[in-house]
Amino acid sequence: MTAKISYGIRRLVLLNTESYSLGDFPLDKPLSISATNNVGKSTAINALQFPFLCNYRDMVFPKDYKQTLKYYFPYENSYVLSEVLTETGTFVVGAAGKGPLSGHEYQLFAIKKELNLEDFLMDATGGAGKKVRTLDQVEQHLGLADHWVKRLKPKQMQDALIGKEITIQGNEKFSIGVFRLKSMTDKNYRLFINVFKNLLHMNDFNMEEVKMFLINSLLPSWESVSYDFMSEYKNFNESLERERDRIAAARSIAKEVQALVRLKADWDEGFEFLSSAFRRIEAGYEREREKKKTDLENMRFAHGEIENQINRIKADNEIQKTAYGRFFSQQEELGKRLAKLERKAAHYALFPGVDVCVQKIALLEDQRDSLVLELGKSTVDPVKRIEQKIKSVQKEIAGFESQLTNIRSNLLFVLKKHFGPEDIQMLMKILNKDILTAFSLENQDLCIHDEPGLVRQLQQLLQRCAKGIYNDGNIRIDLNRVASVDIDDYFNHDRIKQNLALVQKDKAELVKTLDVAKNYQQKEREKKNLDLTIREQSNELEGYKAFLREKQEKPRLEAQLAEAQSELKLVVDRMKDNEDQSALLNKRITGDRFEIEKSQAALLKMEAERQRVLIVKNLEGNTALDREPVLDMDGINIETLINAYVVKREAISDIRARIDQCLVNIELRGGNRFASGRDIPARIKEFEDNTNEESINNYETVLKRNETAATRQLGAMLKNLKDQFHEFVYEIKRFNRDMNKHQISNINKIEFVVDENNNILSIINTLINEDSIFGGDKDIYRVVQRFNELIDKKGVKISLPNLFNLGILVQLENGKEVKSFGSTSIQSTGTDLTVKVVLNVMLLSRILHVKQNQMLNIPAYIDEAGQIDPENQQTLIDQCAKAGFVPIFASVEAQSTAEYWIGLRQVNGKILVEQDDWYRLTAKPLEATTASC
User: Where, if anywhere, are coiled coils annotated (predicted)?
Assistant: First the structure.
């Protein structure tokens, strides 16, 4: 017989998480994980949700979303990895952290190769304490060996895991197929996710969930539809009651509608007279009104022409004012220019002439050029700079003299006794040389109170110098860049005297240079004075030349002044004529305005009298002008017609009030349902048509037909529920037979039993068989009310899960039967948990497609496994093995029935599980627990 191949999840690895530095777990054989409570057993198995459930909303964790992500993926090189074997090969599927900057999110990925921890570590040695690669680094590392990381979105990972072929990176096809479903529907996938979660959280699996899983599994075509029967019943009943109310309202307003029809006829007759009379009044009035309006317009036109003429005069006056300003300004400007010319003539009366002035300027320029030539032959520093150099040299002389005086009584002489030449050099670079040499210790300018203490402090200062660099932690100075000094310049008496003589010589040279510079400075001032005189003489000459040119223009300026004065006189005369003409026109326009106001008052009086005749709207909202006159009123004078119009208008106003009252009465009796819109004649017509005897008979026929249809629709809904229930009862019996093919521990038989609510089902049968459940039948009404009370008592809507309670019947070896609803507790050590596991295994095996020569390998996590006796543990292992599931026992102590045992241990504050920690358990009697490495 050919051995079956075990496909599925083979291994789980947690790498660099908050609690695990490395957690490497085998999942291909039954595994026992032991540790004290809250150490990390559930943490490991819960991690399988990330790669296999894909979407976080489908996962269950004890902490919230942000805490969970930070717990499993604290770093960008945190991983949850799993090795799976499928028909297409071996894959690594996992989730990699993206780091704190992304909010500890993670990236799903898959690699077609066996899981090798060396691929995720920076070197090939493996083990704890090694640096973990990020996903980018893993991708680069594996790419060199032609293994490619497939980064997948949650939907892509979901489709790939259940065997769908997905397209990634353009047109690359990819599939994994570790969970191949018999049906690829979304409902089937949701059922698989829920069962898979149950296998990872077995202790939280309750009987209500068992019921829903059995329904979804045993009735694949079942839709989770709940019926609110009473809501539907009330909706139908309300609709039918509205039809009954319609019939009653039609009968109650029928007489009022007939009265309304008669009033409408009286109104129509009166409005025909008003519409014809209004046309006749309107025509006579308009002729007279138009004549008066025409006369008034002619007077206004003549008045407007005079106003236009006045405006033209005003506009011309504005032009003349502008011209007056222009000519006046021109006259003033020309007068000023001629006066200025006279003043210049007086100024230049004694001017020597152009040639004499030119000769004088040339003589001054020769004197200036001679000075420029003389100044150009010498180059001397400025007087101020030479004086500064003399002060500097004088300071050096004072320094040398001080050195000679204090050569054996200064600070440098004292320090020479304690420090060598190199240290002296370093101190002179750090300290001010004048402090060391310029002060005498014999006066109060510099006093040494504690010579040893001073030496110690200077030694500490030198200790901060190394290789010519001073560094005290606060500042760093490269003293090599400071020029060294010759010590003899400070201790050799002859050398100091020699340096003093050189500086004194320099001072004498500078004094001589200062005298030369001061002479040079005097000549510079003379040159500047000559330049100023030449410039003033040249400016005067140019002014005289300009005067000569302007003098030639004097006749032309005098002629222009005479012309401007003539034009100014013409403008003044024109403005006087305009003022005279404007005065005459204003006098005339005052009289015209009085006549216009008189004519306008007459027109307004006639229009006020016309207001006695008011236009009337008909019931449709149209006026008399909206229709042609029906009656001939040409022979009636306007005054008589107005009186008749007012009387008739008052009469139809009373009729309109009575029509409105009828409409209010009909509305109060619910009559608005028989008419639509706001058009009163149309509403009256609709009231008449919809409340006659024929219409009422039609309403009663429709009511009976709708009662029958509503009853059939509600009956079909209840019958569908009843059929679903009977189908589920049949399927649960078949499921019980399959489940009892394998004995569990000391139990002869386990069955799921259905406790149907007989009262609800009985009422459903009664209502299904009724021809009509509406229409006021008191017995049927009581049945419906009883049905409503039962539904309210359960606090649910009517649906298949709410038609029954699911319980479990257990027959022990001694023949005793125990039936329990709402709880799975069984009087057998750990049997209730064993039943849960077997149930989930059977449900999942119904969903997954497994070929004949294949077996699944899916982990089932069982917490607090120590509560299950060894016999039940072995039964559970055997049952799971046949269906391809691997129990993972978590407890405080090792469970001997498992094939592997791992005891969790902490290293440096984190859990570390390596393959060396996998202990294979030796076959033994049930009461013994031994382990060998």
Answer: 383-410, 520-581
By CB atoms closer than 10 A (0-12, 13-18, 19+), residue 502 is exposed
**DSSP strands (E only) in 398-464:** none
61-70, 72-81, 337-346, 617-626, range with greatest mean pLDDT: 72-81
Task: Return the closest-CA partner of residue 653 out of 610, 616, 613.
Answer: 616
- Tell me how crowded residue 596 is: count the other CB atoms within 10 A of its CB: 14
C-beta separation of 4 from 854 below 8 A: yes
β-pair partners for 807:
753, 821
Residue 33: name the closest of 59, 7, 14 by CA: 14
Compute CA distances 931 → 806, 893, 895, 919, 921, whole Å: 43, 12, 10, 7, 5
Helix, strand, coil shares of the chain, percent, nearest 5, are 60, 15, 25
Tell me the per-residue pLDDT of 494-547, one tens digit each, with 9 for 90 and over.
Answer: 777 888 888 888 888 878 777 777 777 777 787 788 888 888 878 877 877 777
E strands in 757-832 = 804-812, 817-821
Which structural domains are found in the chain, ordered by start?
Answer: 1-189+848-933 (3.40.50.300), 383-523 (no CATH)
Distances (CA, A) of 465 to 426, 459, 469, 476, 480: 8, 10, 5, 10, 11
Q: What distance in Å separates the CA atoms of residue 584 and residue 597, rounded to the nearest whole number?
A: 21
Contacts of 621 (CB under 8 A, 6+ apart): 679
Residues 6+ apart with CB under 8 A from 700: 247
**Cα gap 430→789, rounded to integer Å:** 104
Q: Which residue has the tokens 């125990």?
A: 818
Number of Cβ atoms within 10 Å of the Cβ of 563? 13
As given in the structure block, the two tokens for residue 785 are: 């009310």
Please give the structure tokens belonging to residue 459.
């030694």
Which residues on neighbouring strands pair with residue 80, listed in sequence order? 14, 95
